[in-house]
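Trying the structure run again after the queue cleared.
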Amino acid sequence: MNEKDISRSCVDCGTINCDFMDKEYPDFCPTTNMDKEILKDAMELYLENEDNRKIANASAEVEAENYCKMTRIEEIMEFAKKIGAKKIGIANCVGLLGEARIAAKIFRKHGFEVYGVGCKVGAQLKTKIGISEKCEVVGKNMCNPILQAKILNSQHTQLNVVIGLCVGHDSLFYKYSDALVTTLIAKDRVLGHNPVAALYQANAYYSRLLDEK
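Done. Tokens:
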């Protein structure tokens, strides 16, 4: 895409004045250019919805009280405690069952009830929902994030934790989960489930990512 065709937004900002308030907002800044009704609607959803206020407050407290002290799994447990969640659901890739098992052990050690559902639950063929046979190169049975969500819904989990669901499968899980969802592990088979490494190396080993397509 040509530079002149880019619609500038927060990802193009170099000032972050919305955080520090010590510089000027860029001309394209959403803070100064947004429809004020959008801001009003968003703020009302915090002010008028008790659940939203509770979640926002719990999130802010976890950050403030444990900044650069706690690992993500510890922060998840702190967040769960603050929102009163006693039953944690785990939606994991079966390829990360070992990691899911360790996470469950940690959660249980801290007093949480845990119910986990792997992505191949139900053991259904990919072709049954019209997925091409060419996708069977990595296995015939489909990942079933909608079923994962529905099973955890039936178990009345109060906070669901994603562990390594595939790109897109995680999206469907988020869509159908009744409980709040947070992610412990984002899948990246190439980078040992550390996808940010590709960004850190975008000007070096992974410079191909910045090649024009």
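Residues 50-66 form the longest helix (17 residues). Worth checking whether this holds up in the mutant runs.
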